[in-house]
From TrEMBL, chain A:
<dbReference type="InterPro" id="IPR040079">
    <property type="entry name" value="Glutathione_S-Trfase"/>
</dbReference>
<dbReference type="GO" id="GO:0004364">
    <property type="term" value="F:glutathione transferase activity"/>
</dbReference>
<feature type="domain" description="GST C-terminal">
    <location>
        <begin position="88"/>
        <end position="219"/>
    </location>
</feature>
<comment type="similarity">
    <text>Belongs to the GST superfamily.</text>
</comment>
<dbReference type="InterPro" id="IPR004046">
    <property type="entry name" value="GST_C"/>
</dbReference>
<dbReference type="InterPro" id="IPR010987">
    <property type="entry name" value="Glutathione-S-Trfase_C-like"/>
</dbReference>
<dbReference type="InterPro" id="IPR036249">
    <property type="entry name" value="Thioredoxin-like_sf"/>
</dbReference>
<feature type="domain" description="GST N-terminal">
    <location>
        <begin position="4"/>
        <end position="83"/>
    </location>
</feature>
<dbReference type="InterPro" id="IPR004045">
    <property type="entry name" value="Glutathione_S-Trfase_N"/>
</dbReference>
UniProtKB/TrEMBL annotation, chain B:
<dbReference type="InterPro" id="IPR040079">
    <property type="entry name" value="Glutathione_S-Trfase"/>
</dbReference>
<dbReference type="GO" id="GO:0060320">
    <property type="term" value="P:rejection of self pollen"/>
</dbReference>
<dbReference type="GO" id="GO:0004364">
    <property type="term" value="F:glutathione transferase activity"/>
</dbReference>
<dbReference type="InterPro" id="IPR010987">
    <property type="entry name" value="Glutathione-S-Trfase_C-like"/>
</dbReference>
<dbReference type="GO" id="GO:0005576">
    <property type="term" value="C:extracellular region"/>
</dbReference>
<keyword id="KW-0808">Transferase</keyword>
<dbReference type="Pfam" id="PF00043">
    <property type="entry name" value="GST_C"/>
</dbReference>
<comment type="similarity">
    <text>Belongs to the plant self-incompatibility (S1) protein family.</text>
</comment>
<dbReference type="InterPro" id="IPR010264">
    <property type="entry name" value="Self-incomp_S1"/>
</dbReference>
């Protein structure tokens, strides 16, 4: 829509920001991207997301929104081309269910696996594997949403890029290609899609960034 | 247009009136068997009405679908096809007095949707088998069954209810306002951990939890401002989501022995609690103070034996 202003405030290394980028790109929406420095938060971020002071923040014609899944739903409702959520309410419910499952179960376990050590890490790693096995069971068709890229692909596809990096850094296998063949294939497929692939941050850069943040975290914890 | 009667009772009356050259409006009045009749006649009595749009291009066939239980309003023919499932059976699996289950009860009541409530207990294998079947990922309540199809996770169920039964909307129409409402629901969900912590911890952890709870309440106080409900003039999705505060936070505070939500600090929230509890759809779906107190006291004692509680 001409004359509209869409700004995404983000961080290159955040998978939650990447979700929003993917949605905007898949729908062909013109937007301005602003890189935020979370160690020195801008006045703009504090104004637009006073509750959490985090990214991503989408600003559409001056109106700010936060929380990536909320933003995805807004994008889908506002720009109707290339619909992300299915039309049928029951299928929509399934899409929302899986997206929340990842945020509520997979993400905390993944964070613990990455930042902690010893038994806590092993336990969290096991939890990640179990959650991924559950996701494996939820896949129907080529993508989570069926044949086309949809809401769930965009909401959870980033795991296919981030988890192997976590695996490399902490030395724990999480995506078991034998136990999770469909999930593994789906991650590869999704990340190879041209629109998706173009937005992904370079692997080395992300690997080094995560290595560094892990060092800072493990050296500062008592 | 053809009709096919299937069953042994009910009156089918059709009247068609020509509104304009381009629009033909048909009004159907179908009397479905009442729920009590379906106990006498097992298997519920269905009417199948086949509607064929033979109008030429650029003309819309409008249909008004209405039964003694439901009125789906005037819709175009393609929309009618989608609507048939709304009249399907609705069941809610729950455990007393889960605040997550109450959310769904309240939403169904506010929208006037007929449902069957199946109350179970987690230690009963019949019930846990049902949960395993219909909610294999979490094995928790609430689970909504619509025409036998299960939906789990209260926020997901609420969105499904909103889309399937649009009457008495719980979300605003405007996409931005909807997103803002969803943001607050997400906030409330995330911060519920602090309230849980308030209930189950003691000592330093409890102090930390109390501080967090106060901060969340402050944000909510600013959000309610002087509105009647979070949804504005009437109950919305955030009222439903936060309704547990009106349901049981007072009881929890009494069990814990520390009052946080006091009228002097949170006048807006205090008034909201009264408004919410007095809403016609809510007030008949609120357990009593004594039974909630007994429940939460017992629960806390299993977590914190009384010789440890401060």
């Amino acid at each position: 829509m001409a004359g509209e202003s869409v700004t995404l405030i983000g961080l290159w290394s955040s998978p939650f920001v990447l979700r929003v980028k993917w949605a905007l790109e898949v729908k062909g929406i013109e937007y301005q991207y602003v890189e935020e420095d979370l160690s020195n938060k801008s006045a703009m971020l504090l104004q637009y997301n006073p509750v959490y002071k985090k990214v991503p923040v989408l600003v559409h014609d001056g109106k700010p929104l936060a929380e990536s899944l909320v933003i995805l739903e807004y994008i889908d409702e506002t720009w109707k081309q290339t619909p992300l959520l299915p039309h049928d309410p029951y299928e929509k419910a399934k899409a929302r269910f899986w997206s929340r499952f990842v945020d509520e179960k997979c993400v905390p376990a993944l964070i613990t696996t990455f930042f902690k050590g010893g038994e806590e890490q092993q336990k969290a790693g096991q939890e990640v594997r179990e959650n991924l096995k559950i996701l494996e069971g939820g896949i129907e068709g080529k993508h989570f949403g069926g044949e086309k890229i949809g809401f769930v692909d965009i909401a959870i596809g980033w795991l296919g890029y981030w988890i192997p990096i976590v695996e490399e850094i902490v030395g724990i296998n999480l995506i078991d290609k034998e136990l999770m063949p469909k999930l593994d294939a789906w991650f590869h497929d999704f990340l190879e899609h041209p629109v998706i692939k173009e937005c992904i941050p370079p692997r080395d850069k992300l690997l080094n960034h995560n290595k560094a943040s892990r060092k800072v975290s493990t050296s500062s914890s008592t | 247009m053809k009709e096919n009667k299937n069953g042994n009772s009910g009156i089918l009356a059709i009247s068609a009136c020509r509104v304009s050259r381009y629009v033909l409006a048909l009004v159907f009045v179908l009397a479905f068997a009442s729920p009590s009749a379906s106990n006498i006649f097992p298997g519920f009595i269905k009417w199948h009405v086949f509607i064929v749009d033979d109008l030429s291009n650029n003309q819309n066939l409008l249909c008004h679908c209405k039964s003694s239980d439901d009125d789906l309003g005037i819709q175009t023919l393609p929309q009618v096809v989608e609507l048939h499932h709304r009249m399907g059976e609705v069941k809610l699996l729950g455990v007393w007095p889960s605040p997550y289950v109450y959310r769904i009860i309240w939403a169904l009541e506010v929208k006037g949707i007929k449902y069957e409530y199946v109350q179970g207990e987690f230690h009963k294998p019949d019930f846990t088998d049902l949960l395993l079947k219909y909610n294999p990922v979490y094995k928790k309540v609430p689970v909504l069954l619509h025409d036998g199809k299960p939906i789990a996770e209260s926020t997901v169920i609420l969105e499904y209810i909103e889309e399937t039964w649009p009457q008495r909307p719980l979300l605003p129409q405007d996409p931005y306002e909807r997103a803002v409402a969803r943001f607050w629901v997400s906030f409330a969900e995330e911060k519920s951990i602090s309230f849980m912590s308030f209930f189950v911890t003691v000592g330093e952890e409890f102090q930390k939890a109390t501080k967090e709870v106060k901060e969340v309440l402050k944000v909510l106080e600013e959000t309610i401002a002087d509105k009647r409900y979070f949804g504005g003039e009437d109950i919305g999705v955030l009222d439903i989501n936060l309704g547990w505060i009106a349901l049981s936070f007072g009881v929890i505070e009494d069990v814990v022995g520390v009052k946080v939500l006091v009228v002097s600090d949170f006048p807006g929230l205090f008034t909201w609690i009264q408004n919410f509890r007095e809403h016609p759809a809510i007030k008949t779906n609120l357990p009593s103070y004594p039974e909630l107190f007994t429940y939460y006291k017992q629960k806390r004692e299993t977590i914190i034996p009384s010789d440890v509680a401060s």
